[in-house]
User: What shape does this take?
Amino acid sequence: MRRVKKKKRKKNGSFRWLVFCFAVFCLWLFSTFTLTVTEAEIKSDKIKDEITIVQISDLHGSDFGMNNSSIVKRIEKAKPDIVVVTGDMYTRGSEEGKNTALKLMRKISEDYATYYVNGEHDNEESFFDELRKNNVNVLDYKFEDITIKKTPVRIYGITNVYYSPTFDLNNEFTLNDSRYNILLAHICNKESFAHFGLDLCLCGDTHGGQVRLPFIGGLYGTTGWLPEVVDKEAFVKGLYKYENTDFFISSGLGNYPISLRFLNRPEIAIIKLVPEK
Assistant: This one.
Protein backbone atom coordinates (compact mmCIF):
# COMPACT_ATOMS: atom_id res chain seq x y z
CA MET A 1 0.00 0.00 0.00
CA ARG A 2 2.82 2.41 0.81
CA ARG A 3 4.43 1.84 -2.58
CA VAL A 4 1.14 2.68 -4.33
CA LYS A 5 0.85 5.93 -2.38
CA LYS A 6 4.40 6.90 -3.34
CA LYS A 7 3.64 6.31 -7.00
CA LYS A 8 0.49 8.42 -6.75
CA ARG A 9 2.41 11.22 -5.09
CA LYS A 10 5.02 11.13 -7.83
CA LYS A 11 2.34 11.22 -10.52
CA ASN A 12 0.54 14.11 -8.80
CA GLY A 13 3.82 15.98 -8.41
CA SER A 14 4.70 15.46 -12.09
CA PHE A 15 1.23 16.58 -13.19
CA ARG A 16 1.42 19.76 -11.10
CA TRP A 17 4.86 20.50 -12.52
CA LEU A 18 3.57 20.07 -16.08
CA VAL A 19 0.61 22.36 -15.35
CA PHE A 20 2.96 24.97 -13.89
CA CYS A 21 5.31 24.78 -16.90
CA PHE A 22 2.38 25.06 -19.30
CA ALA A 23 1.02 28.10 -17.43
CA VAL A 24 4.45 29.79 -17.53
CA PHE A 25 4.71 29.02 -21.26
CA CYS A 26 1.28 30.54 -21.95
CA LEU A 27 2.14 33.61 -19.87
CA TRP A 28 5.41 34.03 -21.81
CA LEU A 29 3.57 33.77 -25.14
CA PHE A 30 0.92 36.26 -24.06
CA SER A 31 3.34 38.76 -22.53
CA THR A 32 5.91 38.63 -25.31
CA PHE A 33 3.96 38.22 -28.54
CA THR A 34 0.49 39.77 -28.15
CA LEU A 35 -0.15 43.44 -28.83
CA THR A 36 -1.62 46.01 -26.51
CA VAL A 37 -2.67 49.59 -27.25
CA THR A 38 -1.71 52.28 -24.77
CA GLU A 39 -3.51 55.63 -24.85
CA ALA A 40 -2.25 58.89 -23.38
CA GLU A 41 -3.86 62.33 -23.37
CA ILE A 42 -1.90 65.60 -23.24
CA LYS A 43 -3.50 69.02 -22.89
CA SER A 44 -2.00 72.21 -24.27
CA ASP A 45 -3.23 75.72 -24.97
CA LYS A 46 -1.34 75.52 -28.29
CA ILE A 47 -3.63 72.75 -29.55
CA LYS A 48 -6.69 74.03 -31.44
CA ASP A 49 -8.34 70.71 -32.34
CA GLU A 50 -7.74 67.18 -31.12
CA ILE A 51 -4.70 65.59 -32.76
CA THR A 52 -4.05 61.85 -32.79
CA ILE A 53 -0.48 60.54 -33.00
CA VAL A 54 0.39 56.86 -33.23
CA GLN A 55 3.88 55.95 -32.04
CA ILE A 56 5.62 52.67 -32.75
CA SER A 57 9.14 51.82 -31.67
CA ASP A 58 11.72 49.06 -31.22
CA LEU A 59 10.17 46.49 -33.54
CA HIS A 60 13.49 44.62 -33.78
CA GLY A 61 12.24 42.84 -36.89
CA SER A 62 9.30 41.16 -35.14
CA ASP A 63 6.15 39.99 -36.93
CA PHE A 64 2.66 40.41 -35.53
CA GLY A 65 0.49 38.65 -38.07
CA MET A 66 1.22 38.27 -41.77
CA ASN A 67 3.37 41.27 -42.79
CA ASN A 68 2.60 42.79 -39.40
CA SER A 69 -1.08 43.03 -40.28
CA SER A 70 -2.03 43.22 -36.59
CA ILE A 71 -0.01 46.42 -36.20
CA VAL A 72 -1.46 47.90 -39.37
CA LYS A 73 -5.04 47.13 -38.29
CA ARG A 74 -4.57 48.84 -34.93
CA ILE A 75 -3.08 51.89 -36.60
CA GLU A 76 -6.02 52.03 -39.01
CA LYS A 77 -8.46 51.78 -36.12
CA ALA A 78 -6.79 54.73 -34.35
CA LYS A 79 -7.20 56.96 -37.45
CA PRO A 80 -4.06 58.95 -36.68
CA ASP A 81 -3.18 62.34 -38.09
CA ILE A 82 0.47 61.28 -38.15
CA VAL A 83 2.51 58.17 -37.32
CA VAL A 84 5.91 58.49 -35.64
CA VAL A 85 8.56 55.79 -35.46
CA THR A 86 11.29 56.10 -32.84
CA GLY A 87 13.98 53.67 -33.91
CA ASP A 88 15.40 50.15 -33.65
CA MET A 89 12.96 48.78 -36.17
CA TYR A 90 15.32 45.86 -36.76
CA THR A 91 18.29 44.37 -34.96
CA ARG A 92 21.73 45.19 -36.32
CA GLY A 93 22.96 42.58 -38.81
CA SER A 94 19.56 40.99 -39.47
CA GLU A 95 18.64 41.31 -43.16
CA GLU A 96 15.37 39.45 -42.54
CA GLY A 97 14.47 41.86 -39.76
CA LYS A 98 15.42 44.81 -41.95
CA ASN A 99 13.11 43.61 -44.73
CA THR A 100 10.31 43.07 -42.22
CA ALA A 101 10.72 46.64 -40.96
CA LEU A 102 10.78 48.05 -44.50
CA LYS A 103 7.57 46.24 -45.46
CA LEU A 104 5.78 47.63 -42.41
CA MET A 105 7.06 51.17 -42.96
CA ARG A 106 6.08 51.09 -46.64
CA LYS A 107 2.57 49.99 -45.73
CA ILE A 108 2.12 52.67 -43.07
CA SER A 109 3.46 55.47 -45.25
CA GLU A 110 0.97 54.62 -48.02
CA ASP A 111 -1.86 55.99 -45.88
CA TYR A 112 -0.32 58.23 -43.21
CA ALA A 113 2.26 60.97 -42.90
CA THR A 114 5.09 59.02 -41.27
CA TYR A 115 8.08 60.45 -39.40
CA TYR A 116 11.09 58.38 -38.41
CA VAL A 117 14.26 58.61 -36.34
CA ASN A 118 16.80 55.82 -35.97
CA GLY A 119 18.08 53.91 -32.98
CA GLU A 120 21.45 52.28 -32.45
CA HIS A 121 20.48 49.18 -34.45
CA ASP A 122 18.79 50.60 -37.58
CA ASN A 123 21.41 53.31 -38.06
CA GLU A 124 22.18 52.56 -41.72
CA GLU A 125 22.13 55.02 -44.60
CA SER A 126 20.86 52.31 -46.98
CA PHE A 127 17.82 51.85 -44.71
CA PHE A 128 17.23 55.61 -44.62
CA ASP A 129 17.39 55.75 -48.43
CA GLU A 130 14.77 53.02 -48.77
CA LEU A 131 12.49 54.82 -46.34
CA ARG A 132 12.85 58.11 -48.22
CA LYS A 133 11.95 56.34 -51.47
CA ASN A 134 8.70 55.29 -49.80
CA ASN A 135 7.73 58.79 -48.60
CA VAL A 136 8.84 58.28 -45.01
CA ASN A 137 10.11 61.53 -43.50
CA VAL A 138 13.56 60.65 -42.12
CA LEU A 139 14.39 63.32 -39.55
CA ASP A 140 18.17 63.05 -39.23
CA TYR A 141 18.76 66.31 -37.39
CA LYS A 142 16.01 67.95 -39.39
CA PHE A 143 12.62 69.44 -38.62
CA GLU A 144 9.39 69.89 -40.53
CA ASP A 145 6.72 72.52 -40.07
CA ILE A 146 3.24 71.15 -40.69
CA THR A 147 -0.31 72.15 -39.85
CA ILE A 148 -2.59 69.48 -38.43
CA LYS A 149 -6.18 70.67 -38.68
CA LYS A 150 -5.86 74.18 -37.22
CA THR A 151 -2.72 73.64 -35.15
CA PRO A 152 0.75 74.64 -36.40
CA VAL A 153 3.23 71.93 -35.41
CA ARG A 154 7.00 71.61 -35.70
CA ILE A 155 8.45 68.07 -35.61
CA TYR A 156 12.16 67.71 -34.86
CA GLY A 157 14.19 64.52 -35.12
CA ILE A 158 17.64 63.62 -33.86
CA THR A 159 19.87 60.60 -34.48
CA ASN A 160 21.73 60.37 -31.16
CA VAL A 161 22.47 57.01 -29.61
CA TYR A 162 24.86 58.71 -27.19
CA TYR A 163 24.84 62.13 -25.50
CA SER A 164 27.98 64.00 -24.53
CA PRO A 165 27.98 66.05 -21.31
CA THR A 166 27.78 69.21 -23.44
CA PHE A 167 24.86 68.08 -25.60
CA ASP A 168 22.54 71.01 -26.33
CA LEU A 169 19.72 71.14 -28.89
CA ASN A 170 20.25 74.91 -29.14
CA ASN A 171 23.41 74.14 -31.11
CA GLU A 172 21.33 72.53 -33.87
CA PHE A 173 17.84 74.05 -33.82
CA THR A 174 16.00 77.26 -33.08
CA LEU A 175 12.76 76.80 -31.18
CA ASN A 176 9.63 78.23 -32.78
CA ASP A 177 7.44 78.94 -29.77
CA SER A 178 4.46 79.90 -31.93
CA ARG A 179 4.14 76.21 -32.87
CA TYR A 180 3.53 73.06 -30.86
CA ASN A 181 7.05 71.58 -30.77
CA ILE A 182 7.50 67.80 -30.86
CA LEU A 183 10.86 66.00 -30.71
CA LEU A 184 11.41 62.43 -31.86
CA ALA A 185 14.44 60.79 -30.28
CA HIS A 186 15.24 57.13 -29.74
CA ILE A 187 16.92 57.72 -26.38
CA CYS A 188 15.51 60.20 -23.89
CA ASN A 189 17.62 63.01 -22.43
CA LYS A 190 15.05 64.76 -20.28
CA GLU A 191 17.21 67.60 -18.92
CA SER A 192 18.47 68.72 -22.33
CA PHE A 193 15.13 68.29 -24.06
CA ALA A 194 13.24 70.24 -21.41
CA HIS A 195 15.93 72.94 -21.34
CA PHE A 196 15.38 73.50 -25.07
CA GLY A 197 11.72 74.26 -24.35
CA LEU A 198 9.95 71.47 -26.24
CA ASP A 199 6.26 70.79 -25.71
CA LEU A 200 6.44 67.02 -26.23
CA CYS A 201 9.17 64.40 -26.62
CA LEU A 202 8.45 60.92 -27.99
CA CYS A 203 11.14 58.32 -27.27
CA GLY A 204 11.75 54.57 -27.16
CA ASP A 205 14.80 52.39 -26.45
CA THR A 206 13.92 51.25 -22.91
CA HIS A 207 11.55 48.42 -23.95
CA GLY A 208 9.65 49.48 -20.82
CA GLY A 209 12.21 47.57 -18.77
CA GLN A 210 11.26 44.50 -20.86
CA VAL A 211 10.46 42.54 -17.70
CA ARG A 212 8.47 44.53 -15.15
CA LEU A 213 8.17 43.48 -11.53
CA PRO A 214 5.42 44.54 -9.08
CA PHE A 215 6.48 47.45 -6.83
CA ILE A 216 9.90 47.50 -8.53
CA GLY A 217 9.24 48.44 -12.16
CA GLY A 218 11.49 47.63 -15.08
CA LEU A 219 14.19 45.02 -14.74
CA TYR A 220 16.58 46.73 -17.14
CA GLY A 221 16.61 50.10 -18.93
CA THR A 222 18.85 52.57 -20.72
CA THR A 223 20.64 53.43 -17.48
CA GLY A 224 21.14 49.82 -16.30
CA TRP A 225 19.52 47.32 -13.93
CA LEU A 226 16.41 48.23 -11.93
CA PRO A 227 16.35 51.80 -13.29
CA GLU A 228 13.22 52.84 -11.37
CA VAL A 229 14.71 51.63 -8.09
CA VAL A 230 18.07 53.31 -8.65
CA ASP A 231 16.42 56.56 -9.82
CA LYS A 232 12.85 57.29 -8.73
CA GLU A 233 12.62 59.86 -11.55
CA ALA A 234 13.78 57.47 -14.30
CA PHE A 235 11.72 57.62 -17.50
CA VAL A 236 11.16 54.00 -18.50
CA LYS A 237 7.58 53.51 -19.69
CA GLY A 238 4.60 55.78 -20.26
CA LEU A 239 3.76 59.44 -19.81
CA TYR A 240 5.89 61.81 -17.73
CA LYS A 241 6.35 65.54 -17.23
CA TYR A 242 9.65 67.26 -16.57
CA GLU A 243 9.64 71.02 -16.04
CA ASN A 244 7.26 72.23 -18.77
CA THR A 245 7.84 69.38 -21.22
CA ASP A 246 5.71 66.25 -21.63
CA PHE A 247 7.45 62.96 -22.39
CA PHE A 248 6.06 59.68 -23.66
CA ILE A 249 8.41 56.69 -23.50
CA SER A 250 7.18 53.78 -25.60
CA SER A 251 7.89 50.29 -24.30
CA GLY A 252 8.15 49.20 -27.94
CA LEU A 253 7.14 46.14 -29.89
CA GLY A 254 10.09 43.78 -30.11
CA ASN A 255 12.71 42.33 -27.82
CA TYR A 256 16.48 42.44 -27.51
CA PRO A 257 18.67 40.59 -26.72
CA ILE A 258 16.18 37.81 -25.84
CA SER A 259 12.47 37.30 -26.55
CA LEU A 260 11.14 37.80 -23.05
CA ARG A 261 8.60 40.23 -21.60
CA PHE A 262 6.56 40.17 -18.41
CA LEU A 263 3.75 42.57 -17.37
CA ASN A 264 4.85 44.65 -20.34
CA ARG A 265 3.25 43.54 -23.59
CA PRO A 266 4.38 44.82 -27.02
CA GLU A 267 2.88 48.28 -27.35
CA ILE A 268 1.32 50.58 -29.92
CA ALA A 269 0.93 54.02 -28.38
CA ILE A 270 -1.87 56.45 -29.20
CA ILE A 271 -1.12 59.95 -27.99
CA LYS A 272 -4.01 62.40 -28.14
CA LEU A 273 -3.22 66.11 -28.01
CA VAL A 274 -6.26 68.06 -26.87
CA PRO A 275 -6.99 71.75 -26.29
CA GLU A 276 -6.57 73.11 -22.80
CA LYS A 277 -10.07 74.08 -21.66
The first helix runs from residue 2 to 33. The first strand starts at residue 36 and ends at 44. The CA atoms of residues 29 and 260 lie 9 Å apart. The chain has a mean pLDDT of 94.
